[in-house]
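pls read this protein:
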Amino acid sequence: MKMIDACKAYLTGHEGTISFSVGTIAEDVKEPVSDRDFDVAVHLVFRDKAATEAYQAHPRHKKFIEENKATWAQVRVFDSYLAAP
């Protein structure tokens, strides 16, 4: 899928990234609480807020947006701080 390939090309390998994953909606999972209003989900976890800010400003991230935004009906970002295990 073109979007997944673009995510792998532009959104991986950024300094301060702890984890990256991308995938399509799980068509076979239809729980009452499941959000079904998306096609591709990208999960990025950063070391700290500074790493997130550097990622947002990075030319590869901006190129990803520029090259792909015409295909997006909607973008939703869920920023959160993760609780320690």
